[in-house]
Amino acid sequence: MSEESLPADALPEYAERVLDVAELIPPGRVMTYGDVAEWLEEGGPRQVGRVMALYGGAVAWWRVVRADGVLLPGHELRALEQYRAEGTPLREAGRATEGHLPRIDMKRARWDGGERADGHT
């Protein structure tokens, strides 16, 4: 069955797998788009980013992030609210930083899947 012939409410199999990984990320932790692709052993950061852009609203989308820790453009304030509520480690922005928005402290916030990674894919 091709993707075009799927019912309107059906997700492509790859999208389901990406969203499943996003749901595993604990509050206060993040994975990069590339981390998710690596865990799935399929696709890459762009493919994961596309899935999150199209279907990510159904999961904790703010936990799948850019590798540089920059907040998702257009959703910075919503994401920042979630990060602060969950205690996600942030690096406060300096005055020279555009928009004065913090970044995610990737060294402290990044999650590698821990013990849950044993049964992936």
Entry keywords:
two-stranded parallel ribbon
Commentary on this structure:
The chain is mainly alpha-helical and about 120 residues long. It is about 40% helix and about 5% strand. The chain has 5 helices and 4 strands, in the order αβααβαββα. It has helices spanning about 15-25, 35-40, 45-55, 75-85, 105-110; strands at about 30, 65, 90, 105. A two-stranded parallel ribbon has the order 1-2. Strands 3-4 form a two-stranded antiparallel sheet. The two termini are about 20 Å apart.
Task: Offer a quick outline of the entry.
With 121 residues, the protein is mainly alpha-helical. It has 5 helices and 4 strands; from the N terminus they run αβααβαββα.
Number of strands: 4
Give the N-to-C terminal Cα separation. Answer: 21 Å
| Assembly status | single chain
Global mean pLDDT? 86
**Strand numbers in spatial order across the main sheet:** 1-2
Number of helices: 5
Major sheet, described briefly?
2 strands, parallel
Note the run of SSEs as H and E.
Answer: HEHHEHEEH
Residue share in helix: 25-40%
Shape descriptor reads globular
Low-confidence stretches: 1-6, 117-121
Give me the secondary-structure category. Answer: mainly alpha
**What is Rg?**
15 Å
Instruction: Give the DSSP E fraction (strand runs of 2 or more residues).
Output: 5-15%
